[in-house]
Amino acid sequence: MALIRKRKRKWHAQIRRKGHPALTRSFATRKEASAWAREEEAKLDRIKAWKSPVLMHRLKLADLVRRYRDEEGSRKRGAAVETIILDAFLRSELAAIPLPEIAPQYFAR
């Protein structure tokens, strides 16, 4: 949960999560501060599975696809077919791209 408080003429938003550095920003309105806090907390929730946010920058798309294939894909009815498709994707150039560098252009090609 983010802490939002008024400090002088600005609104100050602070997010603290165990295992992550504290995030702090100042805004002109409380609405802006709340929106930023919700967005940042959602980002932290998405990377919750990883031990460190720094690790996220080292991951490649292939790491996520492998994890999905091994943990979630095996529970599905069409797991055998999906595994073949994901293995083919893992051999593509797109799978070797680091996560922070992935952009929509890669998927458009």
Please describe what this structure looks like.
This protein has 109 residues and is α+β, with helices and mostly antiparallel strands. The protein has two domains: 3-54; 57-108, no CATH class. It has five helices and three strands; from the N terminus they run βββααααα. The chain has helices spanning 30-46, 53-56, 61-71, 79-90, 104-108, and strands spanning 3-7, 10-15, 23-27. The protein has a three-stranded antiparallel sheet with strand order 1-2-3, with helices on one face. The longest helix is centred in the middle third of the chain and has 17 residues, at 30-46. It starts with a strand and ends with a helix.
Mean pLDDT metric: 85
Weakly predicted, low-confidence segments: none
The percent range for helix content is: 40-55%
Strand order of the largest sheet: 1-2-3
Amino-to-carboxy terminus distance:
40 Å
Beta-strand share of residues: 5-15%
Put simply, the count of helices is 5
Keywords:
109 residues, alpha+beta, 5 helices, 45% helix, elongated
Give the helix/strand layout:
Layout: E1 3-7, E2 10-15, E3 23-27, H1 30-46, H2 53-56, H3 61-71, H4 79-90, H5 104-108
Antiparallel strand pairs: 1-2, 2-3
